[in-house]
Amino acid sequence: MSGVAETVPTGGNGTGTATANSVAARGASDIPLVFDQISHWYGDVVAVNSINAVVNAGITGLLGPNGAGKTTLLQLAAGLLSPSAGTVRVYGRSPASGPSAYADIGLVPEQEALPGNMTAEAFVLARAALLGLPDIAEATRKALATVELDNVKRRKLGGFSKGMKQRAKLAAALVHEPRLVLLDEPFNGLDPRQRVGMMRLLEARAEQGTAVLLSSHILEEIEGLASRIMVMLAGRLAATGDYRSLRRLMTDRPHTVHVRSTNDRQLAAALIANPTVVGVEVMTDGLSVRATDYAGFARAVGPAAKHLDISVFEIKPADESLEHVFAYLVEK
Amino acid sequence: MAGDETKRRVLWLASARAIVRLTWARTVTPLLLVGMAVLVLLPMVFAVVFASRGPLAGDPVVFLVERYDQLVLAIAVPILSLLLGTSAFAAESNDGTLMYLVTTTTPRWWIVLVRMLFTATVAAGLSALAVWGSGRIATGASDPMSVTQAFGLAAALGAATYAAGFTAVALLTKRALVGGLAYVLFWEGILSATFPALNFLSVRQWMLAVAASMTDATSKRLDAGPSLNAALIGSAVVTVVAVIIATRRLSRPRLSRIGN
After folding, report:
1. What CA–CA distance (Å, rounded) separates A252 from A121?
2. Strands A58-63 and A211-216, how do they pair?
3. Against a cut of 0.90, is the pTM above it?
4. Which of A7, A9, A121, A5 is nearest to A58 (CA)?
5. Contact B258 A111 (CB under 8 A)
């Protein structure tokens, strides 16, 4: 069994009974991470609202727009925040129960700040020592080699690029080889090559049995990486399940596409005949087309325009923001 | 068993070294170094002026007791301790890097204790240096009535107490520096010197009590303080309470920029 509990989508209240059953079916101390009716609020603001979920070995994506509560949920999992209600369990114990809980947890925060006048090696060495590792030097060497910073280990962190800082943070989180790794927006600021490198690294950890929970506000970022996804919206768990089910739900929904051409009215008449189109509205600056299959529509619009000798200036999805997609999932 | 003991000791020492390295990395900034240098050199500048006047300058013991009290114990020691005590935890809390310290298996009380020992040692050393340097300039190597030695030890003890207290305050509030400065100027600078009833609640008065017990010099200020026992007990209580409060606070740190 891997990833989060099977429920797609949840309608906002987490995985509920499915989670309770899956936890009951196994020893609680075997499960990397369990959120049980977890809520957290800052004053009047509810950041996390009644979330039930189980995170197992493998890579789980925590997806949601900015402000959805992803960071708060990760901080609760890391024991840096106490839940206002509910419980969090990491391998059967509360992450806030004491420092020894951190033997199992590695956290890569979103914020970039690092002690700028320390070298990468000194920083990771300090972490290894504070984590009580028996062979500090070897653990540091291994962690820096894993993130490919071993050739710049004597350079100060203050002079590192964003991508290098991200890898230094990862080395600090992985130096004790924790069984649960929490990453908050780990791909921010990484170039494509660095992203691929980070993905391969996380995949390798997951293959070794580590549970990885990583947050992102960009769906494509975790596409192909996370086999399981938890979608958060406004503090609630909007949907959980395997990536393909969620992706299908997201792509199968009706799309709104903005089209501009040399003859919008004539093109509208042609498009409405296409089976993928369920509605067309002629606007002052183009057409607003509702299509059930975005890819099918995109394939059809070119030949239709060519047949009528119309030039198309622009085809632009109008509702592709993650908020739209998540809102659709919640409604569904 | 012996092997286990050795392993455990090395673990404590290794983590202590790591805490000191992180503290050094976050505490020692160019601005802080300039501030500390000014505070250490200021009493020495007064001593140079005093020494340059030769026999016309008056009794060096009276000069030193007054300057040690009004300049070193009232300003240099508390502000040095304030700068050191508030810089490390405050900076780490504000930029979120405190996370790298607290998401470890090292006990919180050990982190607090090592960090307080570091700041207390540096503050005490610099305070003693300010006393010793100005005494040496004003009186040469003679140290009449052991006044430099007495104030040097008193300043070191006071600096350690202040540093422990301010380190704890830095974990409690974002405005530790402003709050500490207000405390130093109003409580220690004005109120405790004006109202004898507050002697028992003033680190400055405790330092004077320690100094008075070790020197034959007399002055109104030296003789008005609390007893040596009261001073030592007060200092110990502040330090222990600071460790407890800081340890509790570090269990739930304020990480204002850990994420959005």
Report:
1. 49
2. parallel
3. no
4. A5
5. yes
